[in-house]
């Protein structure tokens, strides 16, 4: 890959110092003074780069690897070429994520669109009743509504609209084109471009004359500290209760979360997931891409839901579910195996006849 001017290399950190910060063991102490400047995938890593490897299945990538150092566990360390220093750790993936944060801090949240901007752009509109702490940056064409409160160090991108009474915590990033209304955001929240928070939930009742009557939506959205929400994701406000996103939860692009949904702490929700209204999701739940969750159900703590699953009923804590309708993973895999076997047998019989 050509030199990436969007994220230039770090000035350099000593490998020994980096190992200490990552909690990894540097197997060759003589390499401690080597400088690490960037992160890279194994197959094209060059001098000054650090990479990581989780499986021997990727060992062919080592043939072209010229990295200064690699993060891996003890089993993989044995196959690493001698010119690459080994940082041994049982949590190579986590350590690599921390290395990226150290080497590329500017990539950890969306950057300002305009250079050299500090304070409030003269091209933004800020209502006179809004209250802003020190160090808030508001970029051109943003609209800050009446009685909005924004905490210190928060960045508001171009084209952002914050509705009346919205409260944003400290060190948040609200990226270009995001819309927030009827919502309270904690500290260090990141909204990526186009995210829409706090609009009406989808609620209608039958009309005696035919058609549907809109049910009023007068709840809020509560987003706790350290939540990250992807581009074009939508989170509806509650009907009468609140929609809540728990501390540390990470939500991918193009996710739809309905009214009154309550999501626990440190969950991971991948792109295209849809969660219908009044569903409760516990702590530490992982939901694969394009899964759909029915309304008014409860997903227990620590549940894992496979991609493209259809969840129609409660799932107990700690379970792994998949399929349509979603069922315990062992049952889902058995069903898939049986269907595959039937198809193989049909094709075999057809071949015999021909």
Automatic annotation (TrEMBL):
Any one GO CC term of the record: membrane
Xref: PANTHER family: UDP-3-O-ACYLGLUCOSAMINE N-ACYLTRANSFERASE, UDP-3-O-ACYLGLUCOSAMINE N-ACYLTRANSFERASE 1, MITOCHONDRIAL-RELATED
Organism name: Mycoplana dimorpha
Keyword tags: Acyltransferase, Lipid A biosynthesis, Lipid biosynthesis, Lipid metabolism, Repeat, Transferase
Protein name: UDP-3-O-acylglucosamine N-acyltransferase
EC annotation from Swiss-Prot or TrEMBL: 2.3.1.191
GO MF annotation, one: N-acyltransferase activity
Catalytic activity line of the entry: a UDP-3-O-[(3R)-3-hydroxyacyl]-alpha-D-glucosamine + a (3R)-hydroxyacyl-[ACP] = a UDP-2-N,3-O-bis[(3R)-3-hydroxyacyl]-alpha-D-glucosamine + holo-[ACP] + H(+)
Active-site residues per Swiss-Prot or TrEMBL entry: 259
Classification via HAMAP family: LpxD
Annotated GO biological process: lipid A biosynthetic process
Domain (UDP-3-O-[3-hydroxymyristoyl] glucosamine N-acyltransferase non-repeat region): residue spans on this chain: 34-100
Assembly and oligomerization: Homotrimer.
Pfam families (alphabetical): Hexapep, LpxD
Role of this protein: Catalyzes the N-acylation of UDP-3-O-acylglucosamine using 3-hydroxyacyl-ACP as the acyl donor. Is involved in the biosynthesis of lipid A, a phosphorylated glycolipid that anchors the lipopolysaccharide to the outer membrane of the cell.
The protein's annotated pathway: Bacterial outer membrane biogenesis; LPS lipid A biosynthesis
InterPro entries: Hexapep, Hexapep_transf_CS, LpxD, Trimer_LpxA-like_sf, UDP_GlcNAc_AcTrfase_non-rep
Entry's family note: Belongs to the transferase hexapeptide repeat family. LpxD subfamily.
């Amino acid at each position: 890959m050509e030199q990436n001017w969007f994220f230039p290399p770090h000035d350099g950190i000593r490998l020994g110092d980096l190992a200490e910060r990552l909690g990894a063991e540097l197997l060759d102490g003589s390499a401690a003074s080597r400088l690490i400047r960037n992160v890279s995938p194994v197959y094209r890593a060059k001098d000054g780069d650090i990479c990581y490897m989780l499986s021997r299945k990727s060992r062919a990538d080592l043939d072209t690897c010229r990295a200064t150092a690699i993060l891996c566990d003890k089993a993989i360390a044995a196959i690493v070429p001698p010119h690459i220093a080994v940082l041994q750790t049982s949590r190579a993936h986590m350590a690599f994520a921390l290395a990226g944060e150290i080497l590329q801090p500017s990539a950890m949240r969306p950057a300002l669109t305009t250079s050299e901007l500090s304070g409030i752009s003269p091209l933004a509109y800020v209502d006179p009743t809004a209250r802003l702490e020190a160090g808030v940056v508001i970029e051109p064409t943003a609209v800050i509504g009446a009685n909005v409160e924004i905490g210190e160090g928060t960045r508001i991108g171009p084209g952002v609209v914050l509705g009346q009474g919205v409260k944003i915590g400290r060190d948040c990033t609200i990226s270009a084109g995001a819309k927030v209304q009827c919502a309270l955001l904690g500290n260090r929240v990141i909204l990526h471009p186009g995210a829409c928070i706090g609009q009406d939930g989808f609620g209608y009742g039958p009309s005696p004359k035919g058609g549907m009557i809109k049910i009023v939506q007068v709840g809020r959205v509560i987003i706790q500290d350290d939540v990250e929400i992807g581009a074009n994701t939508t989170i509806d406000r509650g009907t009468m209760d609140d929609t809540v996103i728990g501390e540390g939860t990470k939500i991918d692009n193009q996710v739809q979360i309905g009214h009154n949904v309550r999501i626990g702490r440190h969950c991971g929700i991948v792109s295209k997931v849809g969660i219908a209204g009044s569903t409760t999701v516990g702590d530490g739940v992982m939901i694969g891409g394009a899964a759909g969750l029915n309304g008014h159900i409860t997903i227990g703590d620590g549940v894992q839901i496979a991609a493209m699953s259809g969840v129609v009923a409660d799932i107990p804590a700690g379970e792994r579910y998949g399929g349509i309708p979603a069922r315990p993973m062992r049952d889902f895999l058995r069903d898939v195996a049986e269907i595959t076997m039937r198809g193989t047998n049909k094709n075999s019989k057809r071949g015999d006849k021909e």
